[in-house]
Automatic annotation (TrEMBL):
UniProt function note: May play a key role in the regulation of the intracellular concentration of adenosylhomocysteine.
Reaction(s) catalysed by this chain's protein: S-adenosyl-L-homocysteine + H2O = L-homocysteine + adenosine
Enzyme Commission number: 3.13.2.1
Domain S-adenosyl-L-homocysteine hydrolase NAD binding positions: 194-355
Keyword Hydrolase tagged: yes
Protein name per UniProt: Adenosylhomocysteinase
One BP term from GO: S-adenosylmethionine cycle
Alphabetical keyword list: Cytoplasm, Hydrolase, NAD, One-carbon metabolism
Gene Ontology CC terms, in alphabetical order: cytosol
Natural source organism: Haloterrigena salifodinae
Length: 429
């Protein structure tokens, strides 16, 4: 695929018509539950803020993401999109998107590394003026291989914790050459998408993939960040006994004070029934842990990349490997124990065969923030230097207000006297 341009999905599917219909049906369902994007879209259709812009995107291409892609295209942009994980694309949705006259979709499920990067290059070939990433692959590829495009790029937005982490490392090295909004770090993203979205969808995907119960299980949650908190809370709500592993002392203490058992992975390995990694770091579950695990355990990852469980080491230990179920690979060890890996250790809520990603409502929030961040970058781009930027709080609040209105929830506002009091420092006892 390297010597020819990578083709859009429409040129890669056999039964294109039925794929497009099914993709559109999935998108219509999502749209009915995405009031924020609906409202933002109305504004964009009326004002055409992205007229003449080219937006390059690498995200999980499924129905909810498709609504963001369409929202940006309806606002006047030419959009080129591909996946941000080889297993999370829904080909039918990708095909439906590709029918839009302002959208080209290169996303395809089950691509190998070469095709994955060829599709990223195909997006970059559109010479984007704005990038929207989930995991920073576009920003990385542009800086490494197409630095000549950077002058023409107004800015970007990043969806996920891992992407923001990579961007901050790049920024600290002085290597990030255009401004990028850390969408992940907003309250409207973190407190909902990371906590509830990851919690609900990871557990649902594991349950549907294995047909096993959470009740009575020892569930080991690695990492007690926003995602880990969500997973722990939802597993506990389904009557599992939750064990947390953490490296950060205050988070370990938080987990302890919230009623979970906290212990090193070396100890948790001996007692866990299900292991779910949410750290964003590598080598969280490694050989010494596999050696201690009970027969029949489930291993899954909810972090962005597939590096948290050391599958190479597990493969070396295994005397046999087999497909135990669709999406579950059994690794049989020399002593007869079987360890079951779900979705190849890739982020389970999107890469497992029956997974659908986060629930629609939380993605509406995250993508609402994404949409107004793109608008902000174009309206006020000259106010943002190269580097990672927090999303202006007013934008995040704008999205919260739209959601509250859609839910029919009223809330109080500060009176002038209260506002003045909060802004002053000279009121003592
Ligand atoms: N995520 N997207 C979906 N489109 O179904 N589900 C989860 C979807 C995002 C989520 O915002 C998270 O930060 C990121 O995927 C991890 O790659």
């Amino acid at each position: 695929m390297t010597d020819t341009a990578y083709p859009p999905i429409s040129e890669q599917l056999d039964d294109l018509e039925s794929a497009r219909e099914e993709g559109r049906r999935k998108m219509d369902w999502a749209a009915q539950h995405m009031p924020i994007l609906e409202s933002v879209r109305e504004e964009f259709v009326a004002n055409q803020p992205f007229e003449g812009e080219r937006i390059g995107m690498a995200m999980h291409v499924e129905a909810k993401t498709a609504m963001l892609v369409e929202t940006l295209a309806e606002g006047g942009a030419e959009v080129a999109v591909t996946g941000c994980n080889p297993l999370s694309t829904h080909d039918d949705v990708s095909a439906a998107l590709d029918t839009h006259e302002n959208i080209t979709s290169y996303a395809k499920r089950g691509v190998d590394d070469e095709e994955y990067y060829a599709a990223i290059e195909a997006v970059i070939a559109h010479e984007p003026t704005i990038t929207v990433d989930d995991g920073m692959d576009l920003v990385a590829a542009i800086h490494e291989d197409y630095p000549e495009l950077i002058d023409g790029i107004v800015g970007g937005a990043e969806e996920t914790t891992t992407g923001v982490h990579r961007l901050r490392a790049m920024d600290a090295d002085g290597a990030l050459e255009y401004p990028v909004f850390a969408v992940n770090d907003t309250p409207m993203k973190r407190l909902f998408d990371n906590v509830h979205g990851t919690g609900e969808s990871s557990l649902a995907s594991i349950a549907m993939t294995t047909n096993l119960s959470w009740a009575g299980k020892n569930v080991v949650v690695a990492g007690y960040g926003y995602c880990g908190k969500g997973v722990a809370q939802k597993a506990s709500g389904q009557n599992a006994n939750v064990i947390v592993t953490e490296v950060e002392p205050r988070r370990a203490l938080e987990a302890h004070m919230e009623g979970y058992e906290v212990m090193p992975m070396a100890e948790a390995a001996e007692v866990g029934d299900v292991f779910l990694t949410t750290t964003g770091n590598r080598d969280v579950i490694v050989e010494e842990h596999f050696e201690k695990m009970q027969d029949g355990v489930l291993l899954a990852n909810a972090g962005h990349f597939d590096i948290e469980i050391d599958l190479e080491a597990l493969d070396d230990l295994a005397v046999d490997r087999y497909e135990a179920r669709d999406g579950v690979e059994g690794y049989e060890l020399e002593d007869g124990r079987k360890l079951n890996v779900i979705a190849e250790g890739r982020l389970v809520n999107l890469a497992a065969p029956v997974s659908l990603g986060h629930p629609v409502e939380v993605m509406d929030q995250s993508f609402g923030v994404q949409a107004v961040c793109v608008r902000e970058m174009l309206e006020n781009g000259d106010q943002y230097d190269a580097g990672v930027h927090d999303v202006p709080d007013e934008l995040d609040k704008e999205i919260a207000e739209i959601k509250l209105e859609a839910e029919g929830v009223n809330h109080d506002s500060l009176t002038d006297t209260q506002r003045e009091y909060m802004d002053s420092w000279d009121h003592g006892t």
